[in-house]
Amino acid sequence: MQLPHNPSARQDASWWPSIAALLIAALFAGIGLRDPWPADEPRFAQVAREMVESGQWLFPTRGGEFYPDKPPVFMWLIALFYQLTGQLKIAFLLPSALAGLGTLWLVFDLGRRLWGENVARSAVLALAFTPQFLLQAKGAQIDAVVCFWITLGCYGLVRHFLLGPAWGWYAASWVAMALGIVTKGVGFLPVLMLIPLAIWRRPATASGQQVWCMRAWWGPALMLGTLTLWLVPMWIVVERIQSPELLAYRDNILLRQTAERYANAWHHIKPWHYYLTTALPSMWFPLAVLFLLRLRSIKNLWPSSAALRILLSWVALVLLFFSMSPGKREVYILPALPMFALALAYVWEQAPAEGRRAASLLLRVALAMIGLLLMLLAAVALFAPDRLPSRADDYVDAVAALAPGLLIVGLALSGIVWLLHKRALFEQLALASVLAWLFISFWLWPILNTHRTPRAIMQELERSIAPEAEVGMLEFKEQFLLFADRPLVHFSYLAPLSQQEWNAWRWMRADPARVLLLPDHLALRCFDLAKKRVLGEAHRRNWVLLDASAARESCAAAADRAPYRYVPVKKDILS
């Protein structure tokens, strides 16, 4: 199965420890230097915070209301690190960074076992310079963690069926799938690898040991058993209490957010070809380009490498699976990236130096052009900021501060092309990616942090009202809960606006000292927005305060619902 390597394609291993150390540094750089940013990070951080504050981890809550959109594993991890460190600003980014590091190790080890260390290093470097991988590993979304579980599932299956038998890793793959499901429903995706494994099956090893036998049924049993560790306690509590909210949570998390979300998606609707024509060219650049340039090499290697056939077939099945759903997002296909990078690294390393010259030249030119564009952007930011896109107006105070960093990074990227032109292409691209992320982590994040949080609004709120005044919220963002120094009331994040407004109106009419915090773009029937007091701007919205004088004398009734009251245990937690 393992083909001999082309000596002319072999990298200089002396650089590998330095690049690996830089890559690890890039993964963890900037942790503690920024707060959770919209759209998803504040939600997960707040849910984890409430787990630690309340001691109730089985049913995630957001502002005291059950949060049924995602299974709990990712929030459990943030909560665990929060409990260990006492710092939410550190804890919320650690699960993704550690998952990214774990994914890199799995890819390296699998590549080393399949095709040698040269391919293993190239696969790790390929992940490092593919934008989507570090983008997710350095954020607090669920996808980096579910990518780790799915990669571990694939690793275990390949270790068993292609390099085994390895029944321990086979069992670990099914446990990983279960943990992936309880992280995000698609954790079962490694199961699709059984299709190409069955097509190109290897019934036994050279010593006669079986890899396909009745014992293999233990795998699905292990997955179901692991799932029951979460599912059974949750189901028992719901059945015992029988509250409408818990019943709704169970039905939502088990049905609406899984099968219905896939088959009948209600947002992110995209055409069937979205991943092929939009997501892959942008988020998997330049790997997607390299794949197209090496199609002939793939065709030549296809008959001789079962591992290549299995990995690429699994990637194709994952893309097909997500393409069949009307709801599509770029992050959905992240779990397929590690195996794609590994397969492509093998193809790249098997090509003779002459066959790689055109692709190397093209990508080095692209890297130099990116460097030049960054330098141009720095010049525009310094000397003609009015020519920047209108979206940059939100960060007008930060543009000038970012310009020197952009200039330095642009010079560095261009310098990599010219000064390190004798280094392997993947080393150059990975070094460029690592330098860019170090700049983002240590320079860009601290500068933009004040522009991505509602800290100023919450501080203005404290200056505007009496300490004992109750504050309610309409259409709020989770960040407001994170930055609150006082109890906050809301009227169900999941309820339609008309119902939220009606219950807010009743709540305010019951005590004229109460105030309401909300964005000013809402079309309200129960309140007069002309009597608003503007507190500031956040999330591209003006946030305003309404007191009892803004409540109309009457309002069309909607469904009654008791408000939720969230009391922060530790104030100013992200200071």
Structural class: mainly alpha
Strand order of the largest sheet: 6-7-5-3-4-8
Distance N to C terminus: 55 Å
Strand portion:
5-15%
Overall outline? globular
The percentage helix is 55-70%
Query: Largest sheet at a glance?
Result: 6 strands, mixed
Q: What is the C-alpha radius of gyration, as a whole number of Å?
A: 26 Å
Low-confidence stretches: 1-10
- How many strand segments? 8
Number of helices: 23
Mean pLDDT, rounded to whole units? 88
Describe how the helices and strands are arranged:
Layout: H1 16-28, H2 41-54, E1 61-62, E2 65-66, H3 73-85, H4 88-91, H5 94-115, H6 117-129, H7 131-137, H8 143-161, H9 167-181, H10 194-199, H11 218-241, H12 244-263, H13 274-283, H14 287-293, H15 295-301, H16 306-323, H17 337-350, H18 353-383, H19 396-419, H20 425-449, H21 455-464, E3 471-473, H22 478-482, E4 488-490, H23 497-510, E5 515-519, E6 533-538, E7 541-546, E8 564-566
Parallel strand pairs: 3-4, 3-5
Antiparallel strand pairs: 1-2, 4-8, 5-7, 6-7
Helix pairs in contact: 1-20, 2-3, 5-6, 5-7, 5-8, 5-17, 6-17, 6-20, 8-9, 9-11, 16-17, 18-19, 18-20, 19-20
What does this structure look like?
With 575 residues, the chain is mainly alpha-helical. The protein is 58% helix and 5% strand. It has 23 helices and eight strands. The strands form two sheets. The protein has a six-stranded mixed beta sheet with strand order 6-7-5-3-4-8, sandwiched between helices. A two-stranded antiparallel sheet has the order 1-2. Helix 6 packs across helix 17 (337-350). The chain is globular.
